[in-house]
Amino acid sequence: MVNREKLLLILGVPAEHHGPPLKHEDVTIVSMKSSGYFKGDDIKQEIEISIKENGVKPEYVISDQAHNLTNGNSQPELLQHIDISHAMATCFKHAYGKESDFVSFTTILGKVRLQYHLTDKAYLLPPNMRSIARFMNLNLWVDWGKKMLDCFDGLPKEMQDAYSFILDYKELLVELKVAVAAVEHIETICKTEGFNLANSKKCKKYIIQHIIGNVNNRRAMLGIKILEYFKKQEEKFKDNYESHNISSDIIESTFGVFKQKKSPNKLYGITPFVLFIPLHAKLENKSATKTFNFKERLCNVKLKDIDTFAKKAHVHKLGCSTYQTAQKCGLIWER
Fold this sequence. Notes:
five-stranded mixed β-sheet; 335 residues; alpha/beta
């Protein structure tokens, strides 16, 4: 797409996981920069600048498996965790992505959504499958398929005829439902209790029992890939008592809040409204709202100050004919 913009957002959060999942009030905005693209070297440079400006190196970095982010975080002195949700999606893709029954079923779902849209059959349509990161929302249509199987006999004859294809994929859906439930279980452990050696051992044992076990080759392959992921992440610990964050959900959530608030007009591109992101993170801390002097900010912050920020961060003024996408990179700082 012509003139596509990306926003590189580097967040800082406590390096030690203290119990509950990360919240917006735990976040500090370390850096924001807009560009048409970010190569690995560009990201590496931004990280180096952030380290220099903050005077401290991050304990580790969390990001997804995008090549530019992985290359940008490849400095030998930086430990890098791969976000567990993206990693699990990659494991599913490796095990099922080219399987004939999986491919044919997802193809049928796409056709059915188009065929039954705006008809009396639409109320039973499956969730939309994302064209990008399709395996990230695998659980949504697997849950839909399992529910359709459970209630199929009670559907009107016309609906049974329309969705009869679901019966041909009962074995696949049951298999996926078990695998998805197991993955959601270990993700919940790592996100709520932190990623440490004890929890890693607990998760690996659960995967061996509930995914690998006495099953077919492809589900066993899924389990093996998950075990390999945990082994690689364990190698990032310096001692046996560390507990890390291993999820980039807070980054996704930060972008989600921003996208909800910004103008729906995509032609506006990335504007100085991105300043909403650090403001939101700061004001999510309820103790900070009591001391935040809104009147002083309104009186002392001039439009020229915003223009200076926009120029420095390569952010365009309102009305720029560009499209916006988001490039995310979580940088974890010890605070």
